[in-house]
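Weekly structure sync - notes
Attendees: PM, LS, DV (DV joined late)
Agenda: review two folding runs queued last week.

Item 1: First target. Sequence and structure tokens pasted below for the record.
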Amino acid sequence: MNVILMGPPGSGKGTQAANLAERLNVRAVSSGDLFRDHQRRNTELGQLARSYMERGVYVPDDVTIRMVMEWIEEPDHASGFVLDGFPRTQAQAQALDEALADTGGIDRVAFIRVSDEELTRRLGGRIICAACQRPFNLSSSPPSAEGRCDDCGGDLYQRDDDKAEVVARRIEVYNEETQPVVDYYRSSGLLAEVDGEQPVEAVGEALSQALGI
């Protein structure tokens, strides 16, 4: 089964993608994973992506699609996959459909729906351990001791991109980019939406039901 899982930052998409992949007995991957892997291995595509990122501009769709398709075409992924947060633009969605046209295409697209107000609350309360990178949330999963990591005792801090004004812009940009993608897959009959404001386990069950697994 070939699945795309969409959702805004703070929707818990990464956790749900991993859970879905386990249920389907396939692998999950995000474009960020692929960027990091290619740059770590210093591949031709990794060098190309880095040349754009160092200039502070978006990596072109064709470069991202090439990375995704290279990963999909690996023998280990022949039984299916979960794409975590990709595609992010309608152009990427159309390019992905064209690239997969001869191999069965995408089976289902699931969208985790969360209100802007809830996303702001979640992201604005996120703090991270400077030592081990474990995340906490001041409202939903606070540390046992204020300012200290439960795992290693390291100092907790808030990333710049989790500060209120940046969070608001991240959500705005995501909505601008993603709504056309949601509409694209809805019109194709592939889209299933689930309520992402439920407990994590309930969201997972809703996704399984929506995908028929």
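Item 2: Second target, run right after the first with the same settings.
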Amino acid sequence: MTGINQELNGVLLVDKPTDHTSHDVVARLRGKLKTRKIGHAGTLDPMATGLLVMLIGKATRISQYLISLDKEYTGTIELGKTTDTQDAEGRVMETRPVPPLTEAALKQAMAGFLGDQYQLPPMYSAIKIDGVPLYPKARQGDEVEREPRFIRVSTFELTGYALPRCDFRLRCSKGTYVRTIAHDLGEKLGCGGHLAALRRTASGQFKLADALTLDALLAMPLGEIAPRLIPIHQAAPSVAL
């Protein structure tokens, strides 16, 4: 059994359930595969679901390449309420009336987020300043000066709405905080807003449709998991190990 585990190398696509951190998924797969050498190519917040690109064995060496891939999401924004975390897990900070927005007005506001831009990371994030993550300071009510980060939004489209909620599809560069986009859209519309739901559907060439749920993977025999691994040379053909 140990010999088989040591030979597991490649990319494994997992559909992350809600209320799990990305680290939780890593820990559970470590237990299943009996190996410490597991990572992932891009964190999802606990409330978010969807595609986690897991790196098994020698595939951890291509982490930097895969993290840099563009990401695609679907989700829901709730207008009229702002939260301290900019998503549904946070404490409601302010409630404002939502104007009778038309589909055209929503689409026009969303179009303003397309292209290259700088985004101010939220206080509730794992970004480190002077070696300390921001979120512990945020929980203490402290506000720390942050440097805006360069991002690119290539798609931000309305897929449905029933106010105060609107559904969207978003494609963006690495490091983009979707909950900040939700918050900023609410501010742009004058009523505030937060991210109510989020699901990652793609990361570069990797698609959620090809992923297995965490529960399904944990229930599978190791011999059935091995064929699910995407070989390193296919996952990152331009990277020499």
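Discussion on item 2: Residues 10 and 231 are 5 Å apart (CA to CA).
Action: LS to circulate a short write-up before next sync.
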